[in-house]
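Field reference: sequence -> structure
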Amino acid sequence: MVLTHDYSLPTYEELEQEEIPLSTAALKAGALHFGKSCEQENNEFVLCRQELDDPRKCLKEGKAVTNCALSFFKKVKQSCFDEFQVYATCIDQSSGSFDITKCRNTQHVFDKCMSDNLGIQRPPYDYFSKPFVYDSVRPKPLPEEPLVFSGVPKKVDESEPKTPAKYGGRNMTSFTI
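Structure field:
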């Protein structure tokens, strides 16, 4: 990748963030509850990425999502660790593609624990695919100015008469079959 001198990369201090030390199966086990409890932070991050189209400008929102995930999984560890561990192990060992269909019994136990201890209900499966309007606290970005190019030819006036084409073909009437 080639960069110019004008391109600024974030410093290591700006990028430094505690990572979430979980496996894929564990993240999948807690994904729906995590998505529901950290919905505000995640929506801010996704909106920032879509509006600004520059990941360097959304570092603060990305850190907020990671911090929310860390605090969420710490709460899960304090209140539903055994149920979560059994559910994540089932996801990990039931198939090579982390399929959850064989783990519905352990999922139900984990969902009940999350509901009883943390008050977080498992959202329906279509919850995150439903469209909704999100009201952000961030100011709306200014629209980009349209690009202006020099040397652009003027627009052709359709009312002017057209000269005949040198080799024909300006209209289909010149061809005979």
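Note: The longest helix spans residues 59-94.
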